[in-house]
Amino acid sequence: MNLDKVNIAVIGLGYVGLPLAVEFGKKYPTIGFDINQKRVSELKNGIDHTLEVEKQELQQALRLSYSCNPKDLKAANVYIVTVPTPINKFKQPDLTPLIKASETIGSILKPGDIVIYESTVYPGATEEDCVPVLEKVSGLIFNKDFYAGYSPERINPGDKEHRVTTILKVTSGSTSEVAQFVDDLYASVITAGTHKAESIKVAEAAKVIENTQRDVNIALINELAMIFNRLGIDTEAVLKAAGTKWNFLPFRPGLVGGHCIGVDPYYLTHKAESIGYHPEMILAGRRINDNMSRYVVSEFVKALLQRGIIVRGARVLIMGLSFKEDCPDIRNTKVIDIVSELNQYGILVDVYDPWVNAEEAFSEYALSLTTKPASQTYDGVIVAVAHKQFKLLGIKGIKEMCKPNHIIYDLKYIVDNNAADIRL
After folding, report:
1. Which residues touch 340 (CB under 8 Å, ≥6 apart)?
2. In a domain, 377, yes or no
3. Domain check: are 248 and 186 in the same one?
4. Are 302 and 364 in contact, with CB atoms under 8 Å apart?
5. One domain for residues 269 and 139
6. In what helix (H) or strand (E) does residue 99 lie, and over which residues does it extend?
7. What is the dihedral of CA 328, 85, 193, 19, to 10 degrees?
8. pLDDT tens, position by position, 233-283
9. Angle 52-58-60 (CA atoms, 0-180°, nearest 5)?
10. What's the domain range around 252?
11. Residue 242 in contact with residue 248, Cβ under 8 Å?
12. In which residue ranges of the chain is pLDDT below 50?
């Protein structure tokens, strides 16, 4: 297939799919497809509630249209799948969105079409889980009638510096010819360049270890923070000192949530265990990071008791709900675990986050956000997310919301060491 004959459909218009669709829509006929009718309607009106793409940039994608009708996908010959790949309550991969997207594509797949997956998966998922669905629904034969590729997403939500076009793209294809086509297609819009992997499985593995590596490193720092806390040493001071060496990695302790770092390792460990290998280090890191919310609340409650504050019925403000700073994304946020833990102590919790949509927070977690924290009201404050608004508020602004006797727990180092009562 020549690039001048390309007609693209991007399946899934979330944090990953929309920026990609916009870039392709500046150059190629592109259909942005999503099953969420409200999302499609908003995009047609130039509104992106994820805040990843500005209205002006949406308008620049002159060849991009939006639809929630699968019939509109028939015009495409290249399908790019960017749906979520979450985990279930048992922390096992949930391929449901991926399989449903494959079924939708399979229903309109034509000879010569190419299906490219971007969703994070374990090595083998594209060819072992998705392609059979495409074959079954379409009745076509893989690598004879249609072809597949894999180019893992590398979007960093809320990051205005590292954008889809400025992050080098890994590409792959089910045949050498298709691999070259996929690489050429992405290279035509990705200014940072591309890296053509040897196979689809290599590309899948490369993606899943990116966030697994970060997860393990953060777990190490979280464990060090717990050790230093018992030793009465300030963790940030230690990290600053160690960071003076050129090869010390600048990780910081904290809650590990979101749709990537807190999820992707479970895809790799699932695959490892399916072939009879128990991944000890990766799962150990997951246990540490998954238990950080419980650790934070335990330390916070101890501090309340030591200050003579009655725990049951105490008023506590949590600053931040999204999984990272300056971003409205609340998927798999670990802040909600802090809320649940505090509630078990009978603590009355208010959550304040100026970045998060209140309707989405209630729909996802049955949580009613506080629109404006009251002054001189709280027995304690937990700074869970380092939003720029919170940094500007400073310790003085935070203290104004507290009763005279209070505890401030700074998880994100937004105030000086001596200003907060506890730091992670």
Report:
1. none
2. yes
3. no
4. no
5. no
6. helix 96-106
7. -40
8. 999 999 999 999 999 999 999 999 888 888 999 999 999 999 999 999 999
9. 135
10. 221-423
11. yes
12. none
